[in-house]
Amino acid sequence: MSALAESKNQITVPRIWAIGGGKGGVGKSVVSTGIAMTLARQGQRCVMIDADLGGANLHTFLGMPHPRHTLSDLFSKQADGLQDILLTTPFENLGLISGARAMLDMANLNYLQKAKMIRQISSLDADHIFIDLGAGSSFNVLDFFVAADDGLMVVMPTPTSIENAYHFLRAVYFRKLRKVVRDLNVEGLVDSALNEKVKGGVRSPRDLMTVLKEQDQVVGDQIDREMTLFSPRLIVNQVERHEGRDLAREIELACRDFFGVSINLAGIVRTDDRVLMSLKSRRPVLEMFPTSHFAEDMRTVVQQITSSGEMADG
What we know:
This protein is of the alpha/beta class.
C-alpha cells in the first residue's frame, strides 16, 4: 500500500476545544480565531463552530460575507449534517460552521439535538475543532463545554470578568458532575450527600467528594476520578504588564482549594491596539498584523496547549 493510500485509510479523531468564560466582551471569538488560524498556518486542519447562537459573528472575524448555510439549516432539516454546512474560509486549512440566523428555539436545544450535534462534531474530518461559545451559563453553553476534550476559559483582568468566570466554572463543574452521576447511576447517593449541605457539612465541591467517599468509598473514588479529568485551562486576555500572570495564579489556587481540580494557565494575551484595528477592517489580526504582540501571544498559547505531553493525555 502506498503512503498516500495508507494516509487516506487512517481515521483522524479531531481534538475538540470549547472556548467559554461566562462574560461577554472578554475576547473569546478573537482568541479562538487566533488559535485556530495559528494552527491552520502550521498545517493543522481546523474547523471553527460558531455556537454563540444569539450573536454569531465569527464570519465577520474571518472577513467573510454573511453565510448562506448555517446551523439553522441543520436543525430545520434542510441539511443532513454538519459536513453539509461546512464553509470554506479564505484561509488554508480553516473551515467554518456558522451559527448565524439562529432560530429562536435553537437557544434551548433539547438533549437529543445536542447529542446528535456532538456526535457529528466528532466525525468531522479535521485535526482540531474549536467551539466558540456564547456568553452566560445556559445549558447549551455548559453542555458543549463539558462535551469537549479541552475547555479554555477566557477572562480579562477586571472584577466583573473574574466574578463571571467563577460563576461559569461553578456551573460547568456541577453540570459535569450531574453527567458523571447519571452515567454511574448513583443519583441517590449524591442526593444524600448534598442533603448534608443543609446541615452545614458540604460547603464546596471538595467537601462533597469527602462526604461521598465517607458514604461509599468505591463510588466516591469513581466520581472523584472522573471529576479530576475536569481541568479547563485559563487564558487571560488584554493584559497590561504582569497583572495577568498574578491573576492566573490567584484563580488557579482558588479553584484548587474550592473545587479540588487543577486550573492551569494556557497563556497571557497582551493588550494590542492592532486587534481593534483589524476588527474595524473586518480582517483577522494574524492576516493584517502577523508580527504583532497578539500574533506572538497566540503562537505561545498554541505551543502551550498542544505540547506533546498534553496532546498525549487526550
